[in-house]
TrEMBL record:
The keyword Ligase is assigned to this record: no
ABC transporter domain span: 5-235
Protein keywords: ATP-binding, Nucleotide-binding
The organism's place on the tree of life at top rank: Bacteria
One function term, GO molecular function aspect: ATP binding
InterPro entries for the chain: AAA+_ATPase, ABC_transporter-like_ATP-bd, ABC_transporter-like_CS, ABC_transprt_ATP-bd_su_PQQ, P-loop_NTPase
UniProt source species: Sinorhizobium saheli
Family assignment from sequence similarity: Belongs to the ABC transporter superfamily.
Stated name of the protein: ABC transporter ATP-binding protein
C-alpha cells in the first residue's frame, strides 16, 4: 500500500525568501504523525502546498500514491484539512455550513444529512445542528471544522495548529477525539503543532525548523538518535533553543 502522504524534495519560496527547503518524508497509512515546529518553521506553507492552495513548483507530493499535480482529483478527494484560521460562515447554522461542504463534494442531500448527524454525535455536538455558528465557543467551532473535514470520508486528515486559542480541556478533548479516529477508523492524521506536550512516544514525528526537516521517525527513535532525555530535549536541541517548557518552546 502506498504511503498516506509522501513529500519528496519540496521547496517553496515567497519571492526571494525560502520558506521550505528540499523537504522529504512520508507517513504510513493509519498513523498519527506530528509535524512539530516553532512559529515560522514552515508548517502552514507545507499544508498550503499539500492542499494545493499553493502550486508545488519544486518537488512532488503524493497522497496515497496520487501525485497532487498530475491527479489532483484523485489526490484531494482522499484529503481532509482543518486550517489554523477559522473558515466557518458565522452567520449560517452548523447544518448549513456542513451541507454546503457536502454539496461541493457531490454528496446527495439525504446522504449528507445522515453523515452530518453521525459525525456531530461522534463529536458531542448532536444538539447544535441548527444553531448559528456565531453562538458556539472556539472549541465547538473547531469540532465543527473537524466534522466538515471528515464529511467526504478522507483517509488522510491534516490539522494545522488545531488547538491554538483553546483552553486546556478543549485542547485535550480535541486531541483525544482525533487520536480515537485513528484507532477506530484507521485514518491517517498529520497534526501540526509547536506544543511538545501534544506528542506521544509512539507517534511518528517530523521536526521542521526554518523550512528544513531535521528529524523524521518514531518519537523514541528520534530521541535515541539525538542522545536526548525525551522529545522535549530532542526538540530543543534540534531547534537550537535553550529549553522547551510549559508545553511550548522558548
Ligand atoms: N505570504 C508570505 N509572504 C512572505 N513570507 C511568508 C508568507 N507566509 C509565510 N512566510 C514566511 O515563511 C516562513 C514559514 O511560515 P509558515 O507560516 O509556513 O510557518 P509556520 O510553521 O506555519 O508558523 P506559525 O506556527 O507561526 O503559523 C516564515 O518565515 C514566514 O515569515
Amino acid at each position: 500500500m502506498p504511503a498516506a502522504l509522501e513529500v519528496s524534495a519540496v521547496s517553496h519560496f515567497y519571492g526571494e525568501k525560502q520558506a521550505l527547503s528540499e523537504s522529504s518524508f512520508s507517513i504510513a497509512p493509519g498513523r498519527f504523525a506530528v509535524l512539530l515546529g516553532l512559529n515560522g518553521a514552515g508548517k502552514t506553507t507545507l499544508f498550503s502546498l499539500i492542499s494545493r492552495l499553493f502550486d508545488t513548483r519544486h518537488g512532488t507530493i503524493r497522497i496515497f500514491g496520487h501525485d497532487i499535480r498530475r491527479e489532483p482529483g484523485e489526490a484531494l478527494r482522499r484529503l481532509g484539512i482543518v486550517f489554523q484560521a477559522r473558515t466557518l460562515d458565522l452567520d449560517l447554522s452548523v447544518c448549513q455550513n456542513l451541507s454546503y461542504h457536502a454539496s461541493l463534494h457531490g454528496i446527495g442531500r439525504a446522504e449528507a444529512m445522515s453523515r452530518i448527524r453521525t459525525l456531530l454525535a461522534q463529536i458531542d455536538m448532536g444538539d447544535r445542528l441548527y444553531d448559528k455558528v456565531r453562538s458556539l465557543s472556539g472549541g465547538q467551532m473547531r469540532r465543527i471544522e473537524i466534522a466538515r473535514a471528515l464529511l467526504h470520508r478522507p483517509p488522510l486528515l491534516l490539522l494545522d495548529e488545531a488547538t491554538v486559542g483553546l483552553d486546556i480541556r478543549s485542547r485535550a478533548e480535541i486531541l483525544a477525539a482525533i487520536r480515537e479516529l485513528v484507532h477506530t477508523e484507521g485514518i491517517s492524521v498529520f497534526w501540526a503543532t509547536h506544543l511538545i506536550d501534544e506528542v506521544e512516544e509512539s507517534d511518528h514525528v517530523v521536526i521542521l525548523d526554518k523550512g528544513r526537516v531535521l528529524a523524521d521517525g518514531r518519537v523514541d527513535d528520534v530521541v535515541r538518535a539525538c542522545g536526548a532525555n525525551g522529545i522535549r530535549e530532542a526538540f530543543a536541541t534540534l531547534s537550537g533553543v535553550a529549553s522547551v517548557a510549559g508545553g511550548a518552546a522558548r
